[in-house]
Amino acid sequence: MDWGMQNRMNKLFQNDGRCFFLPIDHGYFQGPTRCLEKPAETIKPLMRYADALFVTRGVLRSCIDAAKTKPIILRVSGGTSMVGEDLANEALTTSIEEIIRLNATAVGVSIFIGSKYEKQTLLNLAELVNKCENYGIPVMAVTAVGKEMEKRESRYLGLCCRIAAELGARVVKTYWCEKDFDKVVNGCPVPVVIAGGPKCDTERQVLEFIYDGLEKGAVGINLGRNVWQSPNPVPMAKALNAVIHKKANVKEALEIFNETKNSK
Predict the structure, then answer these.
(1) Which active-site residues does the annotation give?
(2) CA 19, CA 170: separation in Å to the nearest integer?
(3) pTM value?
(4) What domains lie within the chain, and their CATH numbers?
(5) Rounded to an integer, what is the distance from CA 230 to the centroid of its chain?
């Protein structure tokens, strides 16, 4: 691996090989998402627990302090919205020159396997890899499912992750599934990070699926709504950080959550 690529990968993944990516890119298709109306205020108390920030260039420029930020994973696909015909109809939105200008540590692009736009989004990934590899910039593929959340089962997710890796993604973000998640991870030759999906009802539910996913081989998380939409976002972020980097179990993480919550 080239020095530049290795250097950027080492910024994303800590010495233990694990990561906590905090995504706040939801506005690129959802608009002013609840709790992200003012991104700078939302993330300020959470950044100490995250290893990298997943964000669009617009929010990066307008809301993120260049002197006090974490490594940036730049969202570079889009062109659709929640009110449009199909969320899968994405294109690349950001040039390699802009990626370099913004000093991104990595970039992220969605792929929609099994959709009408499968080929288009896979070629988006391939094109991005072709350009970014020339400059030592890692590409994270996001195995998106749009509104069809029922697709989150191991056979489908395993297919998505392997194709993303085959096309050159250095990291794959995918959903956790209750059954056979280890097969999803084992079939992917690059690091897998867990996406959040729909907001969970309780803190325990979040910690349980993250703990299970890490035990089955994932190297970290890319979790947004289950953190900053939590009634207690800072305790949630601290508890998740403990699961990821201190290998806390669910019971220990809940104790950290409650202690932090009660110490306010």
Answers:
(1) 173
(2) 14
(3) 0.96
(4) 3-262 (3.20.20.70)
(5) 17
